[in-house]
Design goal:
single chain; mainly beta; 5-stranded antiparallel sheet
């Protein structure tokens, strides 16, 4: 699935080598058997394996990053994932040392429901809301967030 705004359609090459290396890594590693933490894939690309329990929509925060794309991949479980254009959002808190900006819940966003094997790629121009419980049902999730450097 690739969903975005037409103004971004040709800005990035989602099949560039750094993305295909990330997709290959996800396809060839059973992350459910890996320890939580960071795994370097190639120059400018690394994976963060994490385990958590999803939370109610109201508690899941919208966020964006300036320096990295996120490829968010569900290895186990299900979650709802909100996506909106950054230009439609209001900043709530900045943690630039962590390349993370948090936003108030936007008026217009698109929910994307993710299950085992699904992923979504989020560019810096979009905000995303990970960790929200799918259909309000909190559950354990094993996720990999692959960080792909913009430059």
């Amino acid at each position: 699935m690739f969903a975005s705004n037409i103004s971004l359609a040709k800005k990035y090459d989602y099949l560039a080598e750094k993305f295909t290396k990330a997709y290959d890594w996800l396809a060839n590693n059973d992350v459910t058997k890996m320890e939580d933490g960071r795994y370097d894939i190639c120059d400018g690309v690394f994976a963060l394996v994490q385990r958590y329990t999803t939370m109610p929509f109201e508690k899941a925060r919208f966020e964006a990053h300036n320096d990295y794309f996120d490829i968010q991949y569900i290895a186990e479980g299900e979650e709802s994932f909100g996506v909106a254009l950054r230009s439609d959002c209001e900043v709530e808190e900045e943690k630039l040392e962590n390349d993370c900006i948090f936003f108030k819940t936007p008026k217009f966003y698109t929910p994307v429901n993710l299950k085992k094997g699904d992923f979504v790629v989020v560019p810096p121009e979009e905000v995303h809301q990970p960790r929200a419980a799918y259909q309000g049902k909190e559950m354990p999730v094993v996720k990999v967030v692959v960080k792909v450097a913009v430059k």
